[in-house]
Write a structure and sequence with these properties.
Layout (H helix, E strand, L loop, with lengths): L1 E6 L5 E8 L1 H4 L8 H12 L4 E4 L1 H7 L9 E3 L3 H7 L3 E4 L5 E6 L2 E7 L15 H4 L10 E4 L4 E4 L3 H7 L8 H7 L2 H13 L5 H10 L8 H12 L4 H10 L3 H4 L1 H9 L1 H20 L5 H14 L4 H6 L4 H15 L7 H14 L11 H26 L16
Parallel strand pairs: 4-7
Antiparallel strand pairs: 1-2, 2-9, 3-4, 3-8, 5-6, 6-7, 8-9
Length: 400
């Protein structure tokens, strides 16, 4: 184990970070994606620092295969873009660079400063950048060239102890960015780490801060949950910490009112996790079907609808409207939600055949069917109306 020092105000050496060598962390270079290594090597050749950071380092220490290799450097986005033709700068508020190698995307960020707190956008140093990380298990920097882990905040020991520990002070971490509460729950449930009582209590107390968060950010976090393979564990902990009512308020309300619905909903999440294991690349619509299946069952007597030969188009558009409201504030891609609804309705025995029509055509046809039905009902009502009698004298009578 090595120590990284800096000088304090008086010029005396001050311990800044612990450096773990290959014999201590046991991460081998063959576990590193070759293209991620190529990005880091090229940045180093141009004279810049570059490290693998965050979840990838955590997963490597846990013996898992990282889904993504995020990279951090002191090179600015414009410099990175200049070095890599196969890249583009993304984001307005928080500028990052995506570097493409075939289907793989590597996210490269620049060290951030603390001058604007933990959510500012100014560029800074590695010493500052680490203090902006949310939890210690995500605040480790891995140097694949020297095969060393740089640890400023005790993250290496926390991973060994299987603890979730905040880097940012507790009185600021969730008020500055409430989405960190979702991440804390997600990290604890997906890794099996312990969420300390004080942190769990703080999350419950601040859960309401998620109310003003934009649907786009909530959708991004929610999609990570259902793609994680740990949806059951994450949602269970989110329910326990009062977060799920802000991610899926309609589902949470139904679970509180109906224990059978809660049991079925959580069972469906277990099935979703099993799907991710078998088919991790399954389309989003297939995954979403597990979330809406039990809700759709409550909408009507589907066996009777099939017996009555109710129009598939009419059933579809009514179900779509209900499901769109049910998943709010989450806003998944419309075509994927439509696929999820069609998949579920077919399980209910509703014969949906729309292979050659566009979604717009189908909705137009369904609306026409509903309009025709309304018009026929109006005609029936008019037929039942009593005939108007001519008023006597100057008296005028108005029928409502």
């Amino acid at each position: 184990m090595l120590i990284r020092y800096s000088s304090d105000k008086n010029g005396k050496p001050h311990k800044k970070a612990v450096i773990y060598t290959k014999t201590e962390h046991s991460i081998t270079k063959d576990k590193i994606d070759t293209d991620a290594l190529r990005v880091i090597t090229q940045l180093r050749d141009y004279g810049f620092e570059a490290y693998i950071v965050g979840g990838a380092v955590r997963d490597l220490l846990l013996g898992r295969v990282p889904k993504d290799f995020d990279i951090v450097t002191n090179a600015t986005p414009s410099k990175i873009k200049k070095f890599f033709r196969n890249s583009r700068i993304i984001g307005r508020r928080f500028r990052l660079v995506h570097i493409f190698f075939g289907p793989k995307i590597f996210e490269v960020s620049t060290f951030r400063s603390l001058c604007d707190g933990s959510i500012g956008n100014s560029f800074g140093t590695m010493d500052e950048d680490v203090q902006r990380r949310d939890f210690t298990l995500n605040a480790l920097y891995y140097d694949p060239i020297k095969e060393q882990i740089i640890d400023y905040v005790g993250g290496f020991k926390d991973i060994k102890k299987r603890l979730i520990t905040p880097v940012i002070p507790l009185d600021r971490i969730f008020t500055e960015d409430p989405v960190r509460m979702i991440r804390a729950v997600k990290y604890a449930a997906s890794t099996g780490f312990s969420l300390p009582f004080f942190l769990k209590r703080k999350i419950r107390k601040n859960a309401h801060l998620l109310s003003p968060i934009s649907p786009s950010r909530l959708t991004e976090e929610f999609l990570k949950i259902i793609n994680s393979g740990h949806a059951f564990d994450i949602v269970s902990l989110a329910l326990e910490t009062d977060l799920y009512m802000y991610l899926q308020p309609s589902a949470t309300s139904l679970m509180f009112d109906n224990s059978n619905f809660e049991q079925d909903y959580l069972t469906r999440l277990r099935e979703l996790d099993a799907l991710i294991v078998i088919s991790p690349d399954a389309r989003l619509g297939q995954k979403l079907s597990y979330l809406i299946q039990d809700f759709i069952k409550t909408l009507t007597n589907w066996e009777q609808e099939v017996i009555n030969s109710t129009s598939a188009g009419e059933l579809y558009i009514k179900t779509w409207s209900q499901c769109r409201h049910f998943v709010l504030p989450i806003n998944p891609q419309r075509s994927e939600l439509e696929f999820a609804i069609k998949t579920t309705l077919k399980k209910m025995g509703v014969a949906l055949k729309i292979p050659k029509k566009t979604t717009k055509d189908f909705f137009t046809e369904a609306k026409v069917i509903l309009e025709q039905k309304k018009n026929s009902e109006l005609v029936k009502k008019k037929k039942k109306r009593p005939k108007k009698k001519k008023p006597s004298g100057q008296e005028q009578i108005s029928y409502q």
